[in-house]
Write a structure and sequence with these properties.
Elements (H helix, E strand, L loop, with lengths): L1 H19 L2 H17 L6 H10 L1 H15 L7 H18 L4 H24 L5 H20 L9 H4 L5 E2 L3 E2 H19 L1 H11 L11 E5 L5 H4 L6 E6 L20 E5 L19 E5 L1
Antiparallel strand pairs: 1-2, 3-4, 4-5, 5-6
Length: 292
């Protein structure tokens, strides 16, 4: 019983710092909801809730991708322009060029991915700050979207495509809302249970390691952990950063003396879901360097 109470107390202590930066917007949102609740009787209704879901589908899907960018300490100003470019490419390919939808959709996504690839190369290979690179790509993609459509509206999409955001399956969810929910779930599972998702947290917490490729990271289970942590559904993991040969002569990020031999930096990153018990030394929150 005492252990359960301590777990709840530690979880609450960890939750407060996480909400520290969001208390202002969160307070404003709560006040606004309370005001609208008493100002009109239609605010707290199922129909209004469904309408809000329909309106945030586009922003919700983009927010999942932006979450990954923020986790590594980056920024992307071109996300809205890239979305507009993808939609204009889709409309031009299907309505003007006559390309079937099953082919036009992946081609539009490929156009958006190409934009992200160029921005990524500018940031990682040419050392352009993310703010400048994405700001430039925002202007470029916005201009390309206007060039593709000549600044005119594209109409003539299939009826089934237009009805995706109108027809409510089961009288509750539209297909666009369902897609947003699926994207939310996939993004959450990737962040918490996949190696690449845990690496995003590690890279964001260690700016010195952002220049290293993701392939140099490998996840391994902790050699030992406390019984309380091992009983969790999601076990504790340690992220191991194996330095490449090109970095053999570099000094350890957390040490002032370089190692003459090839070395590896071990990042002990506990990630048990809802875990509050302190893990063993194999999963401590410190960073150490060892010779291999």
């Amino acid at each position: 019983m005492r252990a359960a109470v301590q777990d709840k107390q530690r979880a609450a202590v960890r939750l407060l710092p996480s909400l520290k930066g969001a208390t202002g917007p969160l307070t404003g949102l709560i006040v606004l909801c309370l005001f609208l609740t008493f100002a009109t009787d239609k605010f707290l209704s199922v129909r209004n809730f469904l309408n809000v879901l329909d309106q945030i589908t586009v922003l919700g899907v983009m927010a999942v991708g932006m979450t990954f960018v923020i986790l590594i300490g980056g920024i992307d100003l071109a996300v809205g322009s890239v979305m507009a470019l993808a939609m204009m490419v889709l409309g031009y390919l299907h309505v003007v060029a006559g390309v079937p939808m099953w082919l036009a959709i992946p081609l539009a996504l490929a156009a958006a991915s190409l934009n992200g690839l160029i921005a990524g190369l500018l940031i990682t290979r040419f050392n352009v700050p993310a703010f400048i690179a994405t700001l430039a790509m925002m202007s470029i993609t916005r201009g390309l979207a206007n060039m593709v459509t000549d600044g005119q509206q594209i109409i003539g999409f299939p009826a089934w495509f237009n009805m995706m955001a109108i027809v409510r399956f089961g009288g509750f969810l539209t297909l666009t809302v369902a897609v947003m929910i699926v994207v939310f779930i996939v993004g959450l599972l990737y962040q918490r249970y996949r190696h690449g998702g845990r690496v995003l947290y590690a890279v964001g917490g260690m700016p010195k390691w952002r220049a290293l490729p993701v392939s140099t990271f490998s996840a391994r289970p902790c050699s030992s952990m406390s019984s309380a942590a091992s009983s969790r559904v999601f076990p504790a993991w340690c992220l191991r950063l194996v330095w490449t040969r090109s970095s053999r002569r570099r000094a350890c990020p957390m040490s002032s003396t370089p190692s003459r031999r090839s070395s590896s930096a071990v990042l002990h990153f506990p990630a048990e879901r809802g875990g509050s018990a302190a893990p063993s030394s194999a999963c401590s929150s410190s960073v150490s360097c060892e010779t291999v």
